[in-house]
Amino acid sequence: MKNITICFLEITSPIDLAIKAVLGLIAETVDFVDDPWTADLVIAEKVIDLIPFYTEDGYYMLIDHLHRSKKRQPKNVNVISCTGSDFMPFLMKTVTREFSSRAAAPATLNINFRVENDGAMQVLVIDDTPLHQKSAEILLGEYDLTIACGYDEAMELLKNNSYDVVLTDMEMPASKQVNDQVLGELIPYGLLLYSEAARCGVRHVAVVTNLNHHTDPISNAFDTFCAHPIRVENAIVKFMHAPMTNIDGQWAKDWKSALQNLLK
Fold this sequence. Notes:
Strand content: 25-35%
CATH class of the largest domain: Alpha Beta
Number of domains: 2
CATH architecture of the largest domain: 3-Layer(aba) Sandwich
Distance between the termini: 56 Å
Order of helices and strands: EHEEHEEHEEHEHEEEHEHEEEEH
């Protein structure tokens, strides 16, 4: 069995050292790392600290000393609310049980990205999925391109910059301003971001979703609006099902085709 790697996120209390000391007793195969993307287990005290690193393939522990988390988290997020003498035995039991036969795959970091191209059209792409971000980087490299990985980043960029075009995903993780969040839960922020982009003076805006229109109700409703652009403020806004393209053997959003559709 390979070493279990554990990363602590933003833990500032003495619990950090205590956990390391106790986990070090259960096996010689426990290693502590600083990179959450390479860790088998990521431990945090706040849901908001886990959000940038959460994937369905990872494994996480949320130490909820004050019982603040009221929402049910995904199965791969173990909320530990034990206190006092119960806490350490519970933690040891959980770690040994979960990693006796498993090891999570590393995730891919998604971050804000900028490619400057003086004189080119300024394009903002908003999407939380690393594969779709990579597709934008590859296909829209001829433009002055900015990529935002979520709602908060997009709102800040729209507030402080000017863009000719905004292409936004429809669903993305909850805002960091929300205290009690569910990891993996996606919010249809695209339906707000297109309005904000128009209000900020962007002239061409598209909400581009790759959700299955047979199973997702909002995506299904896009069928009605795809052929009919609307005007919001001075912007032309389109809702569209994402054209797809092959990026490194995986299907990703074809942002160039989406842009051409928006501008035609």
